[in-house]
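In the design runs reported in the main text, the only information available to the sequence generator was the tokenized backbone. The following block is the verbatim input for one such run; it is reproduced so that readers can re-run the procedure and compare outputs position by position.
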């Protein structure tokens, strides 16, 4: 099938940016703490999961120390996923001067939860520095003495993209009022110390069904539709919907080499069984498959033609596409994208099992096939409805 002509998109790229790829675990939390400890004016931290465990307490202490330095601290967490935070912990945060808030749905009761989740993970300091990725604030995303972190990544930015993210954080914090005054970030004049050789094009991309934003979904469609040679995807909970599946098949028919790195072990085994149900379809469409082995894979990155990439909180499934508030950053810088792709290829080579047709057949007896088929149907229909609309007890 011939390649379709590229449609015009509303991508807006800023150019005065310096970026680096940050691996999850200790590197991520070292970077996060460095940002918090260096902040002089303001900190916005917004995340899906925040637990008051060892890692959560470590970050909280840094935030409290920032308040003592007269830094304004705003902490916004999802009301569903962070519901396990103890009241005593929240009280300590608020008494220390941290401005704390739950992101709540459109409507909720003891058992009913209607609305969308705040799934993005972003920190912005002083309107100058930001980090966006898939890492939540809890122990399983950190490297601790007894256990290594889940595999994840984030993008650290200095420059205009950080200022744009600061504006987004303010709008999210205030729940998008219709007539919102200019935010402190917009009023602030900042001189970014970025050398010409360091500049990088960065675009903020969002999904939010309430605000009719489907920008990250459009990014993946654009990537697959216009790829010339190859696309490398690392994705947790990989259950692409009909539109993305179509673009995957079209890309493969055009001769684009598509590599997908998925989780070998998962914190949601039902989702893993559902993923494996799709393996047959993917292998029939000549998509290379790899399963990550050392730990749970939670990252979300895709690189196109070694030239540009997207990274953030967006999982390639219908919940991210249509239910949650998601945040990704697109980066157009060939050396940076190529280096990121080499990281992904290194993971595929050293830490993954290649899922070939022979391997799939060997592990796909009649009982596994039924379990995978059932999981796939359950995940796509029933589990989607219940996790989105019905609040679970802790």
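Verbatim output:
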């Amino acid at each position: 099938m011939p390649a379709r002509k590229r449609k015009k998109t509303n991508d807006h790229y800023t150019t005065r940016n310096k970026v680096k790829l940050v691996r999850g675990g200790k590197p991520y939390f070292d970077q996060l703490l460095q940002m918090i400890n260096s902040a002089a004016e303001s900190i916005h931290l917004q995340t899906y999961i925040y637990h008051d465990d060892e890692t959560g307490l470590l970050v909280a202490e840094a935030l409290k120390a920032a308040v003592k330095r007269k830094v304004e601290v705003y902490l916004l967490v999802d009301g569903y996923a962070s519901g396990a935070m103890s009241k005593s912990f929240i009280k300590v945060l608020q008494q220390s001067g941290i401005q704390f808030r739950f992101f709540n749905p459109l409507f909720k009761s003891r058992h009913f939860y209607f609305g969308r989740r705040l799934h993005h993970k972003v920190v912005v300091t002083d309107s100058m520095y930001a980090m966006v990725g898939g890492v939540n604030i809890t122990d399983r995303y950190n490297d601790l003495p007894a256990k290594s972190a889940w595999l994840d990544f984030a993008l650290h930015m200095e420059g205009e993209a950080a200022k744009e993210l600061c504006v987004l954080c303010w709008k999210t914090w205030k729940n998008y009022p219709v007539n919102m005054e200019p935010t402190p970030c917009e009023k602030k004049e900042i001189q970014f110390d970025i050398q010409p050789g360091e500049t990088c094009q960065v675009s903020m991309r969002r999904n939010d069904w309430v605000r009719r934003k489907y920008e990250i979904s459009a990014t993946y469609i654009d990537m697959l539709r216009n790829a010339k040679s190859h696309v490398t995807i690392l994705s947790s909970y990989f259950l692409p919907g009909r539109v993305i599946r179509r673009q995957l098949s079209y890309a493969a028919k055009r001769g684009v080499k598509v590599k997908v790195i998925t989780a070998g072990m998962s914190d949601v085994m039902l989702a893993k069984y559902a993923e494996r149900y799709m393996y047959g379809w993917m292998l029939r469409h000549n998509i290379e498959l790899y399963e990550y082995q050392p730990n749970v894979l939670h990252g979300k990155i895709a690189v196109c033609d070694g030239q540009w990439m997207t990274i953030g909180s967006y999982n390639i499934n219908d919940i991210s596409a249509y239910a949650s508030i998601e945040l990704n950053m697109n980066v157009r810088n060939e050396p940076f994208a190529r280096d990121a792709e080499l990281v992904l290829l290194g993971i595929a080579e050293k830490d993954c099992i290649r899922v070939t047709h022979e391997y799939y057949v060997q592990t796909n007896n009649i009982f596994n096939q039924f379990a995978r088929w059932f999981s796939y149907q359950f995940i796509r229909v029933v589990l989607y409805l219940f996790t989105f609309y019905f609040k679970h007890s802790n």
